[in-house]
């Protein structure tokens, strides 16, 4: 590693929490490659996430997702945006943790429902209550894996600056421990 800090920034959180928008901003600001695992799955499959879910089921989607997570985790200094359910497979999180720092992008479901269309989210499309159920089920896992908790209930710029600040703190800690 030559002492250079090469860890990926891995964004985890519920569908609609702002991971994709935040990842795009971070990639521009930090001049890093952006890897969105849902977009990678769609590219590999030649279909949308919704089509994969409806035609092949969640298990097939999760298998494709794990394959794409392996590819993304091989990068260094990347911004990796995961799907909301990536944390359901321990294997995914172990792969990503080898060279990544997890940032839990937290946005309460009530705020997501006020500000986002969830029509392209197969597990919650047309089922508002299921978003609250998913949040309750997944919150312990997001917290377990998160190196950092980022509140995304206000402006996206605030969340972006918080991620950059926490990443730089981790980078500084790394430099101190290398000397």
Task: Give the topology, please.
Elements: E1 8-12, H1 19-30, E2 34-36, H2 37-45, H3 49-56, H4 58-73, E3 79-81, H5 90-97, E4 100-106, H6 109-115, H7 128-145, E5 148-151, H8 156-178
Parallel strand pairs: 1-3, 1-4, 2-3, 4-5
Beta strand count: 5
Unreliable parts:
none
Average per-residue pLDDT, rounded, comes to 89
- Give a short account of the largest sheet: 5 strands, parallel
Give the overall silhouette: globular
- Write the H/E string, N to C: EHEHHHEHEHHEH
Count of DSSP-assigned helices: 8
| Strand adjacency order, main sheet | 2-3-1-4-5
User: If you compute it from the alpha carbons, what radius of gyration comes out, rounded to the nearest whole angstrom?
Assistant: 16 Å
Strand content: 5-15%
Q: What is the helical fraction, as a range of percent? A: 55-70%
The CA-CA distance between the termini, in Å, is: 13 Å
Write up what this structure looks like.
The longest helix has 23 residues, at 156-178. This protein has 179 residues and is an alpha/beta fold. It has 8 helices and 5 strands. Strands 2-3-1-4-5 form a 5-stranded parallel beta sheet, sandwiched between helices.
């Amino acid at each position: 590693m030559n002492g250079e800090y090469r860890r990926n920034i891995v964004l985890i959180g519920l569908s609609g929490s702002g991971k994709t928008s935040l990842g795009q901003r971070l990639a521009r600001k930090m001049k890093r490659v952006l890897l969105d695992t849902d977009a990678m799955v769609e590219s590999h499959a030649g279909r949308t996430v919704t089509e994969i879910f409806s035609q092949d089921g969640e298990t097939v989607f999760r298998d494709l997702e794990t394959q794409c997570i392996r590819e993304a985790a091989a990068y260094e200094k990347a911004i990796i945006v995961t799907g909301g359910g990536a944390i359901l497979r321990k294997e995914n999180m172990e792969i990503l943790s080898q060279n990544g720092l997890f940032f839990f992008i937290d946005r309460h479901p009530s705020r997501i429902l006020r500000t986002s269309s969830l029509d392209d989210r197969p597990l919650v499309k047309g089922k508002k209550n299921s978003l609250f159920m998913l949040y309750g089920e997944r919150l312990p896992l997001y917290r377990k894996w998160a190196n950092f908790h980022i509140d995304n209930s206000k402006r996206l710029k605030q969340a972006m600056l918080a991620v950059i600040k926490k990443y730089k703190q981790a980078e500084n800690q790394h430099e101190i421990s290398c000397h």
